[in-house]
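When time allows, look over one protein, given below as sequence and tokens. The question is which stretches look regular and which look disordered:
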Amino acid sequence: MFRLFLVVALLAWKSPIQGYFFSEQTPVLNHLTKVTENPPESGLPLIDCIYVINLDERPQKWNKIQDELGQNNLHALRFSAINGWKLREDIKQKLFGPYSLNLNGGQTGCLLSHLSIVYDAYRKGYSHIWVLEDDIKINEPPQVLEELLMRLCVIDPEWDLFFTDPDTKNSKGETILSWDVFVRPDQPAEPVNYYRERIVIDDDLMEIRQRFGMYSVIISSRGVQKIIDYFSHVYLWSPIDIDIFYIPEIKVYAARRDIVTVNWQIPISDTVSPPSNNDERDDIAENVPQGDVLALSKPPD
């Protein structure tokens, strides 16, 4: 009996984390915000709903993006973003489970906000959704995206995510590339060169396996299903724009030019420090880098 106890104890000591994907449901979906409003017609026939993630503390950003979308005959549903800075410590511990708390309040809130929207699309059975953060810039008529989506559906009918630009940028307008792999300590991953590879499809489209920034992404119903299946059985580890690429068999594409991209003159400050109702930084370009985990952005070996 003592020998059996010793073996069990040794196994537990050597494997404190039993696996990144759990058979039972993790608490992540229990801490999402339900969307109660009815969405307006998006203005794009292929898109069932355009969602805009916007903190209540940032009304100026919502007004700006609403005006910009309206100028392009588009209509969005505002999602009141989850303020992760206000999450209780015990809730964070539940969300991260066996892992260390790698994300700050802003990153955690951003992730849960994106998942809340995806879960809403899952519940409503949408075919395609367009998820926007409130710091985007429209460079071309968004109707161009429908043409690219129709082409993509022919090239790969099983695509999951489509980003409307190649990469994010810092506050100087410089491109930020994602060069590293940041998986859970117990999560399998491909070699780093796999994630760095970009496969050119044509003049407008490419297949990608990693990038920073979730500020403008179109998600198919297949992608919605994969995201829900994944995050309902894992604990949180890294920002949404990193972890999304480690979903098994996720198929991601991107535009090869900036059709809808980040407005790099507006800093993503709310993932760096808590927002304030008295904060007037919405209209000020600060020297704050875009992207959530820039420690992973470095030149290739």
